[in-house]
């Protein structure tokens, strides 16, 4: 017999709101990379503007969480569900900020011809996206093993990041007239690397949610 | 020193730390069973109660919390047909043994009930009644104990000017603190509290809670409470009972953040009970 079905449905709503927010952020980073490749300034500006929607969602999640804590005196796993929703929403919000950052870089590059075809950045982004998707699915199904896979992929992203930055810096002398573009692309790599970090953090929060113990995936 | 340390076999360290642990305990409950006639209300529980700490007993109504609590100062003796098996060791003595002087035991292990039950006498007499019975007659001594107990029960400032007024003129919260003062006056070692603030308004409840936390400096406190927040706020250890069984007993912070047993989690998060 469940005496707290109302509370449980609120917890479910909180989770749904968070997933909605996460899907929107996921979408924003996908679009930001496409816009980068296609040098789509309009799309980039749209991404920058739409970030407020994600910020608003984070606000709503925070408010709902605060009200649930105040009214329901949650303990143990119930409490962790709410705390973790707060933490994940903040990771997701930062992920969306990085979509905005990438979009801004696209705007800064403008219509200037790319020094070479952008190939590696989308590959790195796909890895980060996989991590995000894994960590969110781990959250949905409360799957500790899946959450742990984020760490492995994060190492790979870090490795790619190091390689790409080195490559880009190598272009500085070759293309002295394109320093801005090279810098912006290096920034983009950095933003993707951060998205991967935030996804790893989401994985850690999921492990805490399920086990009640802190887990450092990067250790 | 260093050689002495070295010479000491490692096992002694273990034994000593175990002895230390024993010293931090005020009560050892071993395989305690309590019956009302044929019906068993407590099913063979074992637990150690820490000194100078607050131990909360939680669990749904009828799970045996009060029965267990009352056995600790032999209040169940007053219930016809009630009997206990097993041991409750206090000061190397088994409380349940026939030889125990129950009156002396209740002085050392005092009890406060859910409903404040002051005698229909003055505030002063409420505290001195049992003291006089115990042979303390000197006025100055009695005065001293009255003030000290009321101070400790955080009631002195509120009643010092009306000590000879009826205890029944006090508010519910004040009456409950008077009952606590009455227990303190006997200089107990252990205080048993059975839902001491469930009949009180929130402010009085908060005062009683503060008081309990204050009192653990001097006493070992065992409290039955229905209020989960209260248990999590004021206790150091929490024991969860269900149908006469001790399901889980752990540090309170652990019980309320990450209990080991599913039933405990369901209970503390309000999913049954
Ligand atoms: N005086 C009594 N006579 C017979 N049965 C009792 C008596 N007091 C309690 N019980 C029974 O013992 C069980 C435990 O009761 P109790 O210790 O009062 O539980 P709790 O304090 O956890 O609510 C219940 O089934 C209750 O009906
Ligand atoms: Mg009871």
From TrEMBL, chain A:
Subcellular location: Cytoplasm
Primary location group: cytoplasm
GO cellular component, one term: cytoplasm
Signal peptide boundaries: none
Domain PhoU: 18-105, 123-205
The entry's keywords: Cytoplasm, Phosphate transport, Transport
Cited Gene3D superfamilies: Phosphate transport system protein phou homolog 2, domain 2
Any one GO BP annotation for this protein: phosphate ion transport
InterPro entries assigned: PhoU, PhoU-like_sf, PhoU_dom
Role according to the record: Plays a role in the regulation of phosphate uptake.
Assembly behavior: Homodimer.
Similarity comment: Belongs to the PhoU family.
Annotated protein name in UniProt: Phosphate-specific transport system accessory protein PhoU
Lineage, highest ranks first: Bacteria, Bacillati, Bacillota, Bacilli, Bacillales
């Amino acid at each position: 017999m469940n005496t707290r079905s109302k509370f449980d449905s609120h917890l479910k709503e909180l989770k749904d709101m968070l997933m909605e927010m996460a899907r929107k952020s996921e979408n924003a980073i996908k679009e930001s990379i496409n816009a980068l490749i296609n040098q789509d300034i309009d799309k980039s500006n749209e991404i920058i503007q739409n970030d407020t929607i994600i910020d608003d969602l984070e606000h709503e999640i925070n408010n709902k969480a605060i009200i649930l804590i105040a009214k329901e005196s949650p303990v143990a796993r119930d409490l962790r569900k709410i705390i973790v929703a707060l933490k994940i929403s903040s990771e997701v919000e930062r992920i969306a900020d990085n979509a905005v950052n990438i979009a801004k870089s696209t705007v800064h590059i403008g219509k200037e011809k790319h020094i070479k075809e952008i190939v590696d950045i989308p590959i790195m982004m796909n890895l980060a996206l996989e991590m995000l998707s894994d960590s969110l699915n781990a959250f949905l199904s409360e799957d500790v093993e899946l959450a742990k896979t984020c760490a492995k992929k994060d190492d790979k992203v870090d490795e790619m990041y190091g390689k790409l930055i080195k490559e880009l810096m190598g272009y500085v002398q070759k293309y002295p007239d394109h320093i801005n573009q090279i810098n912006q692309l290096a920034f983009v790599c950095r933003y993707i690397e951060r998205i991967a970090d935030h996804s790893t953090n989401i994985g850690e929060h999921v492990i805490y949610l399920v086990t009640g113990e802190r887990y450092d995936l990067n250790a | 020193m260093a050689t002495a340390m070295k010479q000491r076999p490692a096992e002694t360290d273990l034994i000593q730390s175990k002895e230390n642990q024993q010293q931090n305990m005020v009560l050892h409950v071993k395989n305690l069973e309590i019956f009302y006639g044929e019906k068993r209300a407590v099913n063979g529980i074992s637990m150690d109660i820490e000194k100078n700490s607050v131990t909360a007993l939680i669990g749904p109504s009828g799970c045996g919390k009060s029965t267990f609590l009352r056995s600790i100062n032999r209040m169940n003796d007053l219930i016809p047909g009630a009997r206990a098996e097993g041991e409750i060791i206090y000061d190397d003595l088994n409380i349940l043994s026939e030889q125990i002087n129950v009156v002396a035991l209740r002085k050392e292990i005092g009890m406060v009930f859910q409903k404040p039950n002051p005698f229909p006498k003055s505030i002063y007499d409420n505290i001195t009644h049992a003291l006089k019975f115990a042979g303390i007659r000197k006025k100055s001594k009695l005065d001293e104990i009255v003030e000290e107990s009321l101070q400790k029960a955080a009631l002195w400032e509120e009643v010092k000017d009306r000590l000879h007024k009826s205890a029944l003129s006090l508010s519910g919260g004040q009456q409950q603190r008077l009952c606590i003062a009455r227990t303190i006056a006997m200089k107990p070692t252990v205080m048993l509290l059975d839902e001491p603030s469930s009949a009180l308004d929130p402010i009085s409840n908060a005062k009683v809670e503060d008081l309990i936390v204050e009192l653990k400096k001097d006493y070992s406190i065992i409290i039955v409470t229905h209020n989960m927040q209260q248990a999590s706020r004021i206790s150091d250890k929490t024991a969860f009972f269900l149908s006469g069984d001790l399901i889980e007993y752990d540090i309170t912070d652990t019980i309320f953040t990450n209990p080991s047993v599913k039933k405990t989690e369901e209970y503390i998060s309000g999913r049954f009970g």
